[in-house]
Amino acid sequence: MTRRWSFYMDFLPVVVIIGNECIDMSLLTLYKAATLQGMNNHVFIAYAYAVGTFVLLPITLFTTRSRVVSPISFSIICKSMLLGAIGCSSQILGYVAINYSSPTLASAIANLVPAFTFILAVTFRMEKLSAKSRSSNAKVIGSIISIAGAFVLTFYKGPSIINADTHLTSLFHQPIAFIKSVDSSWAFAGILLTLDYFLVSLWYILQVHILKEFPDELTLVLLYSITATIISIVVALLSVPNASAWKIGLNLSLISIVSSGIFGKLIGNMVVAWLVHLKGAVYVTSFIPLQIVISVALGAIFLGDTLHVGSIIGATIISIGLYAVMWGKVTEEDVGDTMELPSTENIEPLLQVVEPKLMKIK
């Protein structure tokens, strides 16, 4: 029983987080491809949230008998609506920014999320910061190292290692190169993405706060999704009054909407709710620097992009930073040198609740 609980608390969250980051980057790439074919970003967000809510509603209702459903107070409803407004706003900012840039830039700036989240967690006293605590120092230093590694990976290319047109011998003959912005639209996108990821950090912190009072991930995600769906539809109707923009055919746009609605807005949000309830916001967001590593890896494997020395160095630095954060978190839980985290005795494994219903949907 102890080994099984250790697997559930330590190993499984890491696997799920990494898998979720891979899915997020894939969905962003698919979205970018769909917008290049003319899909409107506001229409996309509205449809994606609607799909996620439509699928989640019967799942939540059908599983009420198999899980403990907490009573819903007016305060929880208001906080859930605020969570939906923050999440929907961040989505709108993020997708608009990607229209002006690319998923790679989004994944690079996403490395600000761990820093934002840690600062907010300390501000709201969800994390205890002590200069004499090894776990606190490890989390701070690890976050800084991860962010530094992400910026190395983003802005330093270096000589190429794998290229269809070159050989490994070119490693010693290519000059060092740095990535430069193409035009002012990238700067505008960077500002939007910075605001987006600050809202994302606030979204994580608020979600942890709500789950301490209302430990029902499925119901929370449903309330959040309904709010976000209503807001996104209103924004889309005001921004895109042209009825023709709302017509979606059997093309890449439809695939992107359905995939984002199911894997992003539905499964992704439920996974995140389960993870922040189990491990906390700081732990979950510390893995976000992996997004750019995943982005570079997918580009090298599936798109034929060149793999550079800077990518290897940056990925190595990020790995060191993530290890430091995880070590700090594990030490914190073992020694108990920070504020007590919410009890996980009544947390029901997410996959046990959702998997039977998802099998029926498939």
From TrEMBL:
The lineage of its organism: Eukaryota, Viridiplantae, Streptophyta, Embryophyta, Tracheophyta. The chain crosses the membrane at residues 7-31, 43-64, 76-98, 104-124, 136-156, 186-206, 218-240, 252-275, 282-303, 309-327. It is found in: Membrane. The keyword Membrane applies. Belongs to the drug/metabolite transporter (DMT) superfamily. Plant drug/metabolite exporter (P-DME) (TC 2.A.7.4) family. This is WAT1-related protein. The keyword Membrane applies. Keywords: Membrane, Transmembrane, Transmembrane helix. It comes from Cicer arietinum. Residues 33-154 form the EamA domain. Pfam families: EamA (PF00892). GO terms for molecular function: transmembrane transporter activity. One of its GO terms (cellular component) is membrane.
